[in-house]
Amino acid sequence: MDKIAILDFGGQYAHLIANRIRRLGVYSEIYDSTTPASALRFCKGIILSGGPNSVYEKGAPTCDPDIFKLNIPVLGICYGHQLLVHLLGGKVKSSGTKEYGHAQISISRNVGVLKFMGDEQTVWMSHGDEVTLLPPGMEIIGKTEDCSSAAIADEHRRFFGVQFHIEVTHTPNGTKMLENFIEVCGAEKEWNLKEYIEQLKMNIQKEVRNRKVFMLVSGGVDSSVAFALLQKTLGVNNVYGLFVDTGLMRENEAKEVRDSMEKAGFKNLHIEDASKDFFAALKGVVLPEKKRIIIGDTFLEVQKRVLKKMKLNPKDWMLGQGTIYPDTIESGGTKHAAKIKTHHNRVPQIEEMIKKGLIIEPLKEFYKDEVRIVGEKIGLEKSLIWRHPFPGPGLGVRVLCAKKAELPSTWKVTEKKINEHLKAKKDGLKAHLLPVQSVGVQGDSRSYKNPVVVCGEAPWDRLNAVSTRITNQFSAVNRVVFSVSPDEISKIEFVGPSFMTPERVKLLQRADAIVKEFCVKKGLYNDVWQFPVILIPVRINSRAGETVVLRPVCSEEAMTANFYEMDFALLRKLGDLLMAVKGVSAVLYDITHKPPGTIEWE
Questions:
Q1: Dihedral over Cα of 418, 421, 425, 429: its sign
Q2: 167, 179, 361, 415: which one is catalytic?
Q3: 78 an active-site residue?
């Protein structure tokens, strides 16, 4: 079978590229970046993935330069684009302007990956470095306003490089660009998911051997598909499901999970109320990473307790998880990946158990869109498969905690400069820094910075542009939100110290339930891929309570996302419903793409 090799330089991108190529029907395999050229000589093509490093830094990941002597087509994407140039004798340096989000590329020649792409394309950027000198034989075939060498080509040697990410859905014609590269490689379309599922089942049987599986089930897409796949492969009596009610779930979540799982025909499902355990463990904790690790550890403690209560011998059982590839990548789980956040299923205890062969994760190489296809192939109900994703830590990562206001020492200067920028651009908006921090992903690396709230009247296209400009040009900021209510902001106060308490969680559960009911009633539920609702310890215009942030996004695989442009009339109605809830001080709307802002705030 023909194969495209992908060299992994960190971040999520190697597996995202593999995902896209497999969906085009071509087999792809991921290799460590240090793989010798001799091991790749029978591949039809080689792709150098993106990554969080700079090629000119000491110790930056590289590859065997002899791959360029194999007479095989090579495509470099983002970091891979820069490495291609660097290794062939060109130059790369830090750019004056960082680019995150959408950009327009002007195409001068329709060759290689840009064949049939016309004069201009919308692409997705995420970089802070740029090519300043091309190697011999290379020419520029595309550029953006801020990047003069956004696409390059050496047609004779069949080497191509793009600064943007063609593997993400936010480059609308990115799949066609990958298909163009496959055509250059001459690779046959011989791969299909159905055959891969059969291989997956054989892998499960081989890994489990004569043991049984104790599966942690959340009721979400990933764990439901993993649970069903394990039961269909190993038999119902050999797979036991445990749903842990952490107290951090949505309103009435435990009952809804039980009902939906029973309706879908799942057997051997036990629900354990462990809310007291989680609130006790999280008492006084504010740092996002510490919260995530505590939640992951507490899951394990509860699982062990239930195992003991049921008098099951731990030696006879493996722990099953619905882990998917983004969980591993964002937790810094591959050689060159930067840690964005530790997922609850990637805490140190779990990593040790994985090394000992005590955990099975049948979907760990998959992205969300692939998981849903697997779910459909094995016969799961669509109501389970297309449910909005919900994080394992639940509302534990949507209730922001802080002991004091968090603002950079230069926040007044930054806020002033942002407002001068908005005035110069005639955006008609006023900006304020919020005294809390959220997690972001900039240049494929983790950031922990302050959001900016803008207020005023503006259409979505202008708000979109404003958000991109602010996060690109002001390094102290990684997220932009729009004020739904109030229309104008005169005063912002930190509410705290604020910790994880049942009262705060209950307030967010109510707000989240209102949002979900509204989306279903107004026919918006299927338009949105995921709709996090966040509670931040901020009071606006002296109105009592805390602030609710709405974060609806459109995505397929969770590694990149666009914020959802809700109809303004509907958004105002939703804002009014939330403002009627006792304890809600204001309602904000997150208008940040991923990157630079992660989908979740923690």
A1: positive
A2: 167
A3: yes
